[in-house]
Design a protein that fits this description.
Helix content is 54%, strand content 8%. By secondary structure, it is mainly α.
């Protein structure tokens, strides 16, 4: 009887561990914005657009996000984020203009 629960526990553990290590979250606050998070996680505030893209199902307006909103921080590799690559930064700036409707 002891072997069955151990086996079930071992099977469940890897799936749980991998999902925990892949998902980062952060919380929007009065002084904590997507740009603040982008600077902290990716090294450049222009990469806020990718945090927005990852969470646009819960964010209707990136300029007005309610404090306490928990957002997913995507891994930099998902969007090709590289603060040292001028092309990567330019791509983020272009995406920002598209999202905000500016040029």
């Amino acid at each position: 009887a002891t072997k069955q629960p151990e086996a079930a526990k071992e099977e469940a553990k890897p799936a749980s561990d991998s999902s925990i290590s892949l998902v980062k979250t952060d919380t929007v606050g009065r002084t904590r914005f997507l740009t603040t998070m982008a600077r902290e996680y990716y090294g450049d505030l222009n990469f806020w657009v990718y945090i927005y893209e990852e969470n646009k199902s819960i964010i209707s307006d990136p300029n007005h996000i309610e404090a306490g909103t928990v957002v997913i921080i995507p891994p930099a590799s998902k969007y090709g984020i590289d603060k040292n690559d001028p092309e990567s930064v330019a791509k983020a700036k272009a995406k920002s203009a598209e999202i905000l409707g500016t040029k």
